[in-house]
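sanity check this record:
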Amino acid sequence: MHRFRSISILILTLGLSISIFSCVMIAFRPDDSRLVRGPFPPEIASIEKGEDLIAVAELKLHENLGETFPNLTLVNAQNDVVTLEEFRGKRLAILVSTTDCHYCVLWLRDLHNTRWKPPEGYDLLMVLFSSGGTKEFNRLVMNAPNHFLVGWPLIDYLAYARFYPAMYFVSDEGIFEGYKRGYLADPVWHVEVDNKANNN
């Protein structure tokens, strides 16, 4: 009887471990066919210098400040497909960390240490990633309360932004308000957001 009970506990433990492992693996499927991926912009295909790529990306982002932010398709931790439009009514801070680069990990560490608190004035911090990485990167991403798998490249004008990590700021009406290019960079705001901040 004791042996039967031990075997039963072992089977239950293995089953639980497999279930947990499966849930974790769901978030790290970059080939998920449900994700929407943007095309690689042909006009940047021949650009070799990193600073030139950044200049083009900055131009595209600046041109679209104050416009509707792309409606990204995401897969959440429950393996459900959601879109950014479903978060209308909340001001979003969206960290895009597609790789486990050094500065991506540093930024994730900082957010983890502040318990994933959104930047001041924003309601929800979202962490988007397109693939898994080091153990620390994976652990940090999975620890974020609102982490989502996203298709790569990103869609629309975000496909030009090849620098990571980056944080995008979106209004409760889905308007692109500003962005922060990199862990140590200062935010770039739409002029209307600056005016609101100066009047408060």
Notes: The chain is about 35% helix and 20% strand. The longest strand covers residues 124-129. Strands lie at 73-75, 81-83, 92-96, 124-129, 147-150, 166-170, 176-181, 187-189.
